[in-house]
Design brief:
The chain is α+β, with helices and mostly antiparallel strands. It contains 11 helices and 12 strands. The radius of gyration is 30 Å and the shape is elongated. The chain starts with a helix and ends with a helix.
Length: 392
């Protein structure tokens, strides 16, 4: 039986060139499905990677109790001082704990692509805010000076928004702020922000409250000690998050939505591809009915016939899946896009087409091939031999 299946399958595949256009319909249909699924999932992967790389296991962010994001959090200076005195926070060479009280403000700037206004995050950081984040590298100009209305722009934000070049000035709260530098951080979420001195930003916006405190832990295992000390303090109502977990939580809703979109859109397109495959394979079986009947008449069983038709459908789907996955990689891998982040500001990230995503796309293709080839294969095996031979 195996030899019969191999023989009839080889015969089927050799006749594919004579059915080039109908085979091409299956390949392109499956390629479209796989291309869309892989591209959307590449957005999920790129977003998750961008957020994950911005966080570190040995950093923690402290928010007001009950706050989901920095925008909904407020911390007084007294609270900030109590937080920075807590155990579990690393101390620098001067004996001062390494932490940065920070304020997050939303700016509206015109985007380079289309000129429409969008939100960008202005993060005011404390005196140790830059030392706390060694991954931030100055790419152009210099860092801002405390007390001056100066800004340093992330490279992604600079590429996305108009008027953020070094030397430019923008008006914030009736004051002229100068862009004095650009920083980069290997494409992570920091690059979508603008940095300034926290106290200067608070004064300009006439705010008195910080929104978060980011601290350097003595070690990744020091988080429970810090959390226990802060939550036990009756004068504080705060929540302590490991930075990586906080950033993952911020991107969770967006990644879930994108995954749902990929699944729903991919499934709808896959249904169309299955029907296209069904139609094409039914036509192929019908055109080869006399050939199949002849094989049955000389002793070929039904199982080898089913195997040959299924193999043909799977091979065509595999070609379509590979075409779609490779096309998605060539067109979109590394392509920069932006989406609304956790602070309702634009977050720039790059689509990432991984080998795992390409294999996932090929799995979709094989599933389409299996469903599209099964019924035509069963029909081929059940063809009435005598009736088919009469048409010779």
């Amino acid at each position: 039986m195996l030899r019969q299946a191999i023989a009839v399958t080889i015969l089927n595949l050799k006749t594919l060139p004579s059915r080039f256009w109908s085979s091409l319909v299956i390949i392109l249909g499956v390629a479209g499905v796989v291309g869309v699924v892989v591209s959307v999932l590449a957005m999920v992967t790129g977003l998750s990677s961008t957020m994950a790389h911005a966080g570190r296991e040995d950093r923690a962010i402290i928010l007001r109790g009950g706050s989901d994001t920095e925008l909904s959090s407020t911390l007084s200076r007294d609270a900030v001082n109590m937080i920075l005195d807590a155990p579990g926070i690393r101390r620098g060479s001067t004996g001062v704990t390494i932490g940065s009280p920070e304020v997050v403000l939303i700016l509206t700037r015109p985007m380079r692509n289309g000129g429409t206004d969008a939100n960008v995050t202005l993060r005011g950081v404390g005196p140790q805010g830059l030392a706390l984040r060694p991954e931030l590298k100055l790419a152009q100009g210099r860092w801002f000076k405390p007390g001056l209305h100066e800004l340093v722009v992330g490279k992604s934000a600079q590429r996305q928004f108009i008027g953020l070049d070094v030397g430019s000035q923008i008006t914030l709260r009736d004051k002229q702020w100068t862009i004095v530098g650009t920083f980069e951080s290997d494409g992570d979420a920091h690059e979508s922000e603008i940095l300034a001195d926290a106290d200067t930003a608070l004064e300009a916006y006439q705010h008195t409250l910080f929104q978060s405190v980011t601290v350097q832990l003595e070690s990744p295992g020091s988080l429970p000690q810090l959390e226990a000390a802060l939550t036990a303090n009756p004068q504080l109502s705060v929540e302590v998050h490991r930075e990586t977990e906080y950033l993952a939580k911020l991107s969770a809703n967006l990644t879930k939505m994108m995954t749902l979109i990929a699944t729903v859109v991919g499934s709808i397109m896959a249904v169309g591809a299955v029907f296209g495959s069904l139609n094409t394979m039914y036509s192929a079986v019908s055109a080869r009915s006399r050939e199949i009947a002849t094989l049955r008449a000389i002793g070929f069983g039904g199982v080898p016939i089913v195997a040959s038709v299924m193999t043909e459908a799977m091979v065509l789907s595999l070609l379509g899946g590979a075409t779609g996955a490779i096309t998605a990689w060539l067109l979109f891998n590394g392509h920069g896009v932006n989406a609304l982040g956790g602070n309702f500001t634009q977050l720039v990230f790059r689509l990432t087409v991984t080998p795992g995503l390409m294999l996932q796309g090929v799995s979709w293709a094989l599933a389409i091939g299996f469903l599209g080839g099964l019924l035509p294969a069963l029909r081929a095996a059940r063809l009435p031999v005598v009736e088919a031979l009469r048409t010779l």
